[in-house]
Automatic annotation (TrEMBL):
The keyword Metal-binding does not apply. The keyword Flavoprotein does not apply. Pfam families: TetR_C_45, TetR_N. Keywords: DNA-binding, Transcription, Transcription regulation. This is TetR/AcrR family transcriptional regulator. InterPro entries: ArpA-like, CprB_TetR_C, DNA-bd_HTH_TetR-type_CS, Homeodomain-like_sf, HTH-type_TetR-like_transc_reg, HTH_TetR, Tet_transcr_reg_TetR-rel_C_sf. GO terms for molecular function: DNA-binding transcription factor activity; transcription cis-regulatory region binding. Residues 33-52 bind DNA. NCBIfam families: ScbR_bind_reg.
Amino acid sequence: MASEKQERAVHTRESLLLAAAETFDEYGYSGASINRILKRAGLTAGALYFHFDSKEDLARAVMNSQPKTIVPLLDSRGLQRLVDITLTWSRRLQEDPLLRAGVRLTNEQVSFGVQDATPYRSWSGIMADCLRDAHERGELQAGVDPAEVGEFVVEACTGMQMFSAVASGRTDLIERVTRMWRLLLPGIAVPAIVARIEVGPNRVRTSAA
């Protein structure tokens, strides 16, 4: 019985997150009223406030859900995993409302009174872990700092998606990410690894299957 209740609670929370993401993506933070979110989720206010304290709390949860839309899809290691994260991210921004809303809210958060770098730091940490693994595997050039490069990649991708959103509705984002790696890899990876890393749309997986 307890397990069934837990499963229902998890399902309710996920339904609220998805409905909120779709609403934030469509209307922005200010236009995404609690009533709109509840109507889309088909749930009551009581269900929402059981899981989240406020609309801001719900927005923060959407912002911080970005990695789970991508990381479970990957099975590569080291530098290839880092490249795959960015390529998958660039494709799923066109397809996944939870990721898209998370990115939008993270970029626009100051406009609704929030200043939370957690989503950026979370991505930087994930990327730094990939680079530490790459170092242990002998893939990095001497002197490459995993934390520094991980943060730089997050900064670069943040700017790229904003540029791409205006220039093409993000349809060219995967090409921009591919170009970034062609420019960046020779400066951080040993030559043999540069030649082996696969970069391009063919690396993108759209499901965990």
